[in-house]
Amino acid sequence: MATLDTPRPAAVALLAGLSLGRWKLIGLAAVLAAACALPFVVSSYQLLLATQVLVYAIALLGLNILTGYNGQFSLGHGAFYAIGAYTTAILLDKTGIPYWVTIPLAGALCLVAGFLFGLPALRLEGHYLALATFALAIATPQLLKYKHFDYLTGGVQGIVITAPDAPSGLPLRSDQWFYFFCLAWTLPLFVVGWNLLRGRTGRALLAIRDHPMAAATMGIDTALYKSLTFGVSAMYTGIAGALGALLAQFVSPDSFDFFLSVRFLVGIVVGGLASMTGAFFGAIFIEFVPNIAEEISKAVPQAIYGAMLIIFIYFMPTGVAGLLRLLGARLRRLASPAAGRSHLPPAR
Amino acid sequence: MSAILETFGLSAAYGPTQVLQSIDLAVEQGGIVTLLGANGAGKTTTLRAVCNMMVRLGGEIRFDGERIDGKATEDIVRLGIGHVPEGRGTFVSLSVEENLRLGAYTRRDKLVARDFERVYGYFPRLQERRNQQAGTLSGGEQQMLAISRALMLRPKLLLLDEPSFGLAPLVVQEIFRILRAINEQDGVSMLLVEQNANIALALAHRAYLLETGRIIMHGPSAAIGADETVRRAYLGY
Amino acid sequence: MQAFLHQVLSGFATGGIYASIALALVMIYQTTHHVNFAQGEMATFSTYMAWKMINLGFSYWLAFLLTLVFAFVLGGAIERLIVRPFYKAPVLSVVAVFIGLLLIINSLSGALFTFTIKPFPSPFPSDAWYGSRYLSSHEVGMIFVTFAVLAVVFVFFRFTPLGLAMRAVAENPVSSRLVGIRVGWMLALGWGLAGLIGAVAGTMTAPVVYLDPNMMFGILLYGFAGALLGGVDNAWGAVIGGFIVGVLQNLAGAYVVGTELMVTVALGIIIGILVIKPSGLFGRTIVTRV
């Protein structure tokens, strides 16, 4: 075991010399560069998958804000994804509004819808809230198929929309353009989410999660914060839905069934609760697993999701992101034992 | 006189918090032993440790010669230990009679009916209220019910956690009078945890004094009661 | 008027199914404070077992009986093997595990029995003497079976030592250990009973809605609405709630919103209860007001 006296290899010393903050910045820059380079190096189909990953990541971030940070629950976020998707689809189908305006409109609508749903629903805790949102998820396809709404929703057949073209003057294909469009939404949403959770609001959210009674006595209006959080989380997922609709160029009621909400749940459990990077890992998981698994049988993806939920909760409750954090901490201790020692509990 | 309960180096903790350090105590067959001490000394923890409830144990506990440390609570109870817990632990939504019947849950013999009579004999008020919901009983009656429920087990050893708590002095006297009767007539051994040291020493044959998880004094009740430091700290004179 | 009566009685019949599911949910909730999201899937899978046995030539009632045994064992096994390790886990973990269970059982049904809809026989012949304009013979049979199950459950809990022990565990597991009750086995028993009740609900429902892996999704929801309506900590309230939901749903479907929006009606009931009276008609408050 290396001590402060033992001479260490120069490379290790250099790496260890960098602070954690520096490391993170370097990592982030690298990831960003890779993300921007992606559309030019992969095939059209792979780019489609990558864009879908971005979309799911936004949706999962929304669910994470709710579940991970605020201790609240939703098995029904598929509903907000659907609302976002249909908002974009209907606006494009019926009005002349340009596609990029529909995104914030979808987000705003979902913000309101989420807040309104949250008001009564958040009187419940834990299991009951889960059940109420479960009801929402199951009711969604039914509502979308309701024949009196057909003139808007297109009924069972749904609505077809055309993909947006890249603005003239840019040497990009439409799918490349759309990838960057989604990236342009993903980055600020993540940054906003990050700030939200680190600043005053974030501390309030964490307080509510851990000590709801105490938070109330400190003057934090719990009910308002909870409903607002639900609204914001719905907004994120709604924006994801809107982007998803543009990506798929199609919306139909049965693509927004209960299993969509389940996919989101699996995403955050596998990726890691209350973790931003977790949203990405989760998105990758739920995008690629069914593609591979469905080749075996239609039933297999569900079984895999179910097994993954149980396995991850049991063995890796902090998800992939948590695992990486653990590994990161181990590596740090290896590289600079002095720094690492401070993380250990005091000797008895 | 052999011991019905013995502990050797018993230690207990709640999570990372160590409460009992190393306790050696014994209750002889047919005897009444009381465990005294201030709040937080570890008295309740000792009783819980005997039944392996909520604590992490170390050391050895023997009941009737057999080791019981590490066994599940329900298996320890089935060996013949009745535990009247802190707060009584009655099933408040069930009737008095259902509570008593639950006390006899593990019994396979035919003498259960006789034990109902015995218990109603000790506590006639319970018989009057046999079909009443347990939660509607007064504090004293609930304590009687808790003791009776433990008796329905036909225990060899009764563990009592602060039976006088929150009760009027007259009620406490009545209950302790009946405890003595139970001990003398039915030969039930008892380990009694009490804050009210006066009444505990009046009932018990021997006493242990517990302070921050250690036994600092033990002996016959009369000797403990006469001790100067004990009198000033715990008996109020 | 005749049509109205038919709707009410028909709703009462389906209400029996919801009441059964509500009862199963409440039973597990009372002993463990967890909501069994996989309740519907367990029922569906058991019903598939019955279907398989009938297809193999077993008589209906023999298959029914064996299915009950199977459902009982399945429920107990799930509790012991999968649910038990998670009791002390936070709510999100527990719900995630239950959803995982839901998915696994659902896909098992699909994998073993395919996703094609299957007809399921009713033991009550359609021309039986007890059928009428108001209620089909199957609906009469459903009501009868539901009441029989509820009666057996009532007698069990009220008059048997085992039932008493389970009530004790539901109220106070610590004190239950102190009287020697093996709490672990009681929990498994509770799950077994819930599974059994679910199987009855499944076999009674399948002839009407046809058997497919997603059969019980909506019904689980109605059961929950019924439990919430009656008061989720009160078994008999839950049962009454289930019947009310059945009637309300039928009336809403016939006269108000049309039959396609049934699940939305359930959602509406749930939200409505939460807004107006969260503890339900008969229950104690479950809401924590801060």
Textual characterization of the structure:
The complex is a heterotrimer of chains A (about 350), B (about 240) and C (about 290). By secondary structure, chain A is mainly alpha-helical. Chain A has a domain of about 210 residues. Chain A has 16 helices and 2 strands. In chain A, strands 1-2 form a two-stranded antiparallel sheet. In chain B, strands 6-7-8-3-9-10 form a 6-stranded mixed sheet, with helices on both faces. The two termini of chain B are about 35 Å apart. Chain B has a single domain, classed as P-loop containing nucleotide triphosphate hydrolases (Rossmann fold). In chain B, a hairpin with a 2-residue loop joins β9 and β10. Chain C is mainly alpha-helical and about 290 residues long. Chain C has a single domain, classed as ABC transporter involved in vitamin B12 uptake, BtuC (Orthogonal Bundle), CATH 1.10.3470. Chain C has 11 helices and no strands. In chain C, α5 packs antiparallel against α8, α6 crosses α8 and α9 runs parallel beside α11. Chain C is globular. Classes of the chains: A mainly alpha (about 350), B alpha/beta (about 240), C mainly alpha (about 290). Chains A and C meet through α6, α10, α12 and α14 of A and α4, α9 and α11 of C.
Helix-strand blueprint:
The complex is a heterotrimer of chains A (348), B (237) and C (290).
Chain A: H1 10-17, H2 20-41, H3 44-70, H4 77-94, H5 99-121, H6 126-145, H7 150-153, E1 159-160, H8 174-198, H9 200-210, H10 212-217, H11 222-248, E2 250-251, H12 258-271, H13 276-293, H14 300-315, H15 319-335, H16 337-341
Antiparallel strand pairs in A: 1-2
Chain B: E1 3-14, E2 17-28, E3 32-37, H1 43-50, E4 56-63, E5 66-67, H2 73-78, E6 81-84, H3 96-103, H4 112-122, H5 124-128, H6 139-151, E7 157-161, H7 169-186, E8 189-193, H8 197-203, E9 206-211, E10 214-220, H9 221-226, H10 228-235
Helix pairs in contact in B: 3-6
Chain C: H1 2-32, H2 39-55, H3 60-83, H4 91-113, H5 137-159, H6 161-171, H7 173-178, H8 183-209, H9 216-230, H10 235-256, H11 262-276
Helix pairs in contact in C: 1-5, 1-8, 1-9, 1-10, 2-3, 2-4, 2-8, 2-9, 3-8, 5-6, 5-8, 6-8, 9-10, 9-11, 10-11
